[in-house]
Amino acid sequence: MSLILKIFITKENKKRINKDEIILPLNNLRVRVYIFRCINLTAQENSNSIVDNLAGYSAFCKANSFIEVKLGYDANEGKGVRYINDISSIVENTLNPYFFRYYELDADLPQDWRLQINIKSKGTAGESLIGSTIVDLENRYLGEKS
User: Fold this and answer.
1) What are phi and psi of 29, to 5 degrees?
2) Under a CB-based contact definition with an 8 Å cutoff, are residues 15 and 145 in contact?
3) Terminal-to-terminal C-alpha distance of the chain
4) 78 partner at 20 to 30 Å CA-CA among 46, 55, 58, 100?
């Protein structure tokens, strides 16, 4: 999964900023998540097309991928969690989908430290999780640039 997430303070800026000034930008942050594409996703279904079966592609697999983004953390996955389920932008019949999507969410650190990005597949049996990653936003924002 190609992921670009830009919220950090460089080492030079960190030396110049007073610690009292860092507290203010931790409220009302805008988190922008860019998802370009995924490579080699896990196949979810075999090809059901008669044309594919006649051509000998019975083992040809596919996934109908879409993006799900969660910001915030709650043990019950409820109160305070921002949630985007972009099922309207399904990329069908490929294991290497190109999404070229971005999402903006408002966050307040430290309570919204957890950003979870899921890639799901919509199939005949419902939705299934293909891939997932978790980003610690507080560490990205206050950590040193590597």
Assistant:
1) -80, 150
2) no
3) 20
4) 100
Q: How far is CA 134 from the centre of its chain?
A: 8
Could you read off the pLDDT of 50-92 as tens digits, one per residue? 665 565 554 456 788 999 999 987 766 566 788 899 999 899 8
What are the tokens at 123?
């199939």
Residue 30 has pLDDT above 90, yes or no: no
**Which of helix, strand or coil describes residue 142?**
helix
Interatomic CA distance for residues 4 and 105, integer angstroms = 15
Cα distance between residue 7 and residue 118, in whole Å: 20
Kindly tell me the burial class for residue 130, based on how many C-beta atoms sit within 10 Å of its own C-beta (0-12, 13-18, 19 or more).
buried
Whether the upstream peptide bond of residue 110 has omega within 30° of 0, thus cis, is: yes
Paired sense of beta strands 98-107 and 29-37, if any? antiparallel
DSSP string computed for 74-87: -TTS-TT-EEEEEE
